[in-house]
Write a structure and sequence with these properties.
This protein is an alpha+beta fold. The chain has three helices and six strands; from the N terminus they run H-E-E-H-E-E-E-H-E.
């Protein structure tokens, strides 16, 4: 018994040229020292950046506390201040997280606000 595969038709693609604002945004999102997509502890992320939060390293109590404040695994936050407390902003809400909990949260930096290089 044989299965005949249909002859795939060529896909059509459109090529769009990005405008100047989109190019500038891409340039400021890149880092020269550390790639943006690298997971790191929240305490090692720079202040003033945007990041995706990963709570899979937290125990159930800490994860439940964060979810009650609106921080779920995979959500994007702005890191306002790193330290004790670590201050995060989700949409229009700012809150502090203790340094011990923040050290167990990992984050993937998606953009720096001023285009500076990330600490290595």
């Amino acid at each position: 018994m044989t299965f005949d595969q249909p002859n795939p038709s060529p896909a059509t693609t459109s090529i769009e040229t990005p405008n100047a604002a989109a190019l500038e945004s891409q340039i400021t999102r890149r880092s020269k020292s550390t790639p943006l997509g690298e997971r790191r502890p929240l305490t090692l992320c720079p202040s003033g950046c945007r990041a995706t939060i990963h709570t899979d390293q937290l125990d159930l109590v800490a994860r439940t506390m964060l979810e009650a404040m609106g921080v779920e695994h995979g959500c994007e936050v702005e890191i306002c201040k790193v330290g004790s407390p670590c201050i995060l902003r989700v949409e229009s809400t700012r809150f502090g997280i203790g340094r011990e909990v923040a050290a167990r949260i990992t984050a993937t930096v998606t953009a720096t606000l001023n285009g500076s290089a990330l600490p290595g």
